[in-house]
Amino acid sequence: MAGNLWQLVSPETYGTFEYDWQKKYGPLYRFKSALGQDRLMVGDPAALQFLTSEPTVIGLPSNRKVGKVVFGERTFWVLEAEEHRRARAALNPGFSGAVVRQLRPLFSDIASRIVQQWAKTCSASDSPVLINVVDL
After folding, report:
1. Structurally, how many domains does the chain consist of?
2. CB within 8 A of 84, min separation 6: which ones?
3. pLDDT in tens, 3-53
4. Which phi and psi (to 5°) does residue 41 adopt?
5. Is 8 within a domain?
6. 78 in a structural domain
7. Rounded to whole angstroms, how far apart are CA atoms 9 and 62?
8. Do 6 and 46 have their domain in common?
9. Domain check: are 5 and 39 in the same one?
10. What pLDDT is recorded for position 56?
11. Is residue 1 a part of any domain in this protein?
């Protein structure tokens, strides 16, 4: 009845099934949702960029209905036509190459701190350590 949804929302460790399925089936695969509906899991950044920027894909009525329930009425995911173009024009400068390059040192610093903390946690034990990164 719930398809594979129960596996996705109930694992003890987040992402268990997604990562296993991605290893087995690749970055783009179909799974069963509630009432036998097919759902597409997209783990490829290029495919995700295409799907979120192509108006004929994101603009499907069924996608907008789900988007309104999940994200809200006036969110980027459910905007249409001119509103969608205006929102993209406003957001695009924040994702330009120059802006992303400026943020790289910040992300590198934060990632280094996380790695140091994990190394400290792991070295404090003689046995393998499970780190739940979601709860951090």
Report:
1. 2
2. 55, 59, 76
3. 677 776 676 777 777 888 888 988 888 888 777 778 788 888 888 788 777
4. -100, 125
5. yes
6. yes
7. 22
8. yes
9. yes
10. 64
11. yes
Q: Which two tokens stand for residue 57?
A: 């894909």
- Tokens representing residue 132 in the block: 């739940």
Q: pTM of the predicted model, to two decimals?
A: 0.42
3-state SS record for 60-80: CHHHHHHHHHHHCCCCHHHCC
Is 46 part of a structural domain of the chain?
yes
3-state secondary structure the chain: CCCCHHHHHCCCCCCHHHHHHHHHHCCEEEEECHHHCEEEEECCHHHHHHHHHCHHHHCCHHHHHHHHHHHCCCCHHHCCHHHHHHHHHHHHHHHCHHHHHHHHHHHHHHHHHHHHHHHHHHHCCCCCCCCCCCCC
At position 37, the amino acid (one-letter code) is Q
Helix then strand then coil, in percent of the chain rounded to 5, is 65, 5, 30
Residues 99, 70 within the same domain: yes
**Do residues 27 and 44 touch, judged by C-beta distance below 8 A?**
yes
Cα torsion for 102, 104, 109, 111, to the nearest 10°? 150
Instruction: In whole angstroms, give the CA distance from residue 111 to residue 116.
Output: 9
Range of the structural domain that residue 28 is part of = 1-53
